[in-house]
Amino acid sequence: MPTIQLPAPAALTITLEEALRRRRTNRDCTAEPLTDAELSALLWASAGITSEDGRRTTPSTLDLRAVTPYVLRADGAWRYDAATNTLEQTTAEDVRKVSTAYQFEYVEKAPVTIVFVADQERAKNARPTGVYVDSGTMGENCYLTATSLGLAGTIRASFDHDQLREAMKLAAHLEPIVLFTCGRPA
């Protein structure tokens, strides 16, 4: 499967305090693609490596690192590899429409949906809620990063988890948990 080398993350241009003040859910976005540097910034904020021992930008239940971001775009589904800052394609199909239970138009229109996928095998020694907490934390980092980059975004959890797993061509032990849909404000 194809691999994309992402560039360094785009610089965040506002303070954390300002990002917290400005952060809003915004589903009204254009179909204009994000730059690879913007996507890199969102992914780094959600699960980027910040130390030699592999620690991330977000906390992880029992340091299991059981949640990995994937990206849905028109050109398919992609797994983010934080160690190499790359995307590895899992399918070339555009599966964004499968990522909503309500057929929201903005989901197919938005150029990117980040899917936080839990490795249930890796997480089996933690409480079941751990992957949900980890995914929510990762999603909030995406919100703050999107705000800093001037992007629109919304976190979502209403979707058929099994149907999305199948569409993304994921193994049975990998479970989509939470989604962050993002694009340029309309």
Can you describe this structure?
The chain is an alpha+beta fold and 186 residues long. Helix content is 28%, strand content 24%. It has five helices and seven strands, in the order βααβββαβαβαβ. A seven-stranded antiparallel beta sheet has the order 1-4-3-2-5-7-6, sandwiched between helices. A hairpin with a 4-residue loop joins strand 3 (76-81) and strand 4. Helix 1 crosses helix 4 and helix 2 (36-47) packs antiparallel against helix 4 (130-149). The longest helix is centred in the C-terminal third of the chain and has 20 residues, at 130-149. It starts with a strand and ends with a strand.
What is the element layout, followed by pairings?
Layout: E1 3-5, H1 16-22, H2 36-47, E2 67-73, E3 76-81, E4 86-91, H3 105-109, E5 112-119, H4 130-149, E6 152-156, H5 161-168, E7 174-183
State the main characteristics:
about 190 residues; alpha+beta; seven-stranded antiparallel sheet; about 25% strand
